[in-house]
Amino acid sequence: MTVHSRARERTPTVLVTFAGHPPADAAAFLAARRVLAPTGSFYALEASKHLGLGAEGGLRIGLAPYNTAGEVQRLLTGLEDFLLA
């Protein structure tokens, strides 16, 4: 198998939504906990519309090689706290 990709050279990024929770609310909640996770369609409005997200889009989360274990834990704890609030 040959994988034609430069994924190892890139920052993994995901776009997520949470049923019943606007992405902007999640972003504000995380920002108060020093986690930057912006919202929107990120120049992919047609893809966002196709996914049923509209212009509101979703919450964008990216992790890079320089992120610390503490930062990742702060993100995960923040997401858990947001969903349990």
Helices, by number, come to 3
Major beta sheet, specifics? 3 strands, antiparallel
**Percent in helix:** 25-40%
Structurally, the number of domains stands at: 1
Q: Roughly what fraction of the amino acids lie in strands? A: 5-15%
Task: Calculate Rg over CA atoms.
Answer: 14 Å
Pfam families: Aminotran_5
Protein name: Aminotransferase class-V
Domain Aminotransferase class V: 5-75
Keywords: Aminotransferase, Transferase
Q: Could you describe the 3D structure shown?
A:
By secondary structure, the protein is α+β, with helices and mostly antiparallel strands. The mean pLDDT is 89. It is flat, with a radius of gyration of 14 Å. It has helices spanning 23-31, 45-50, 69-84, and strands at 13-16, 39-40, 58-62. The protein has one domain (21-84): Aspartate Aminotransferase, domain 1 (Alpha-Beta Complex). The chain has a three-stranded antiparallel β-sheet. The N and C termini lie far apart (45 Å). Helices cover 36% and strands 13% of the residues. One of its GO terms (molecular function) is transaminase activity. InterPro entries: Aminotrans_V_dom (IPR000192), PyrdxlP-dep_Trfase (IPR015424), PyrdxlP-dep_Trfase_small (IPR015422). It comes from Cryobacterium flavum. Residues 5-75 form the Aminotransferase class V domain. Keywords: Aminotransferase, Transferase.
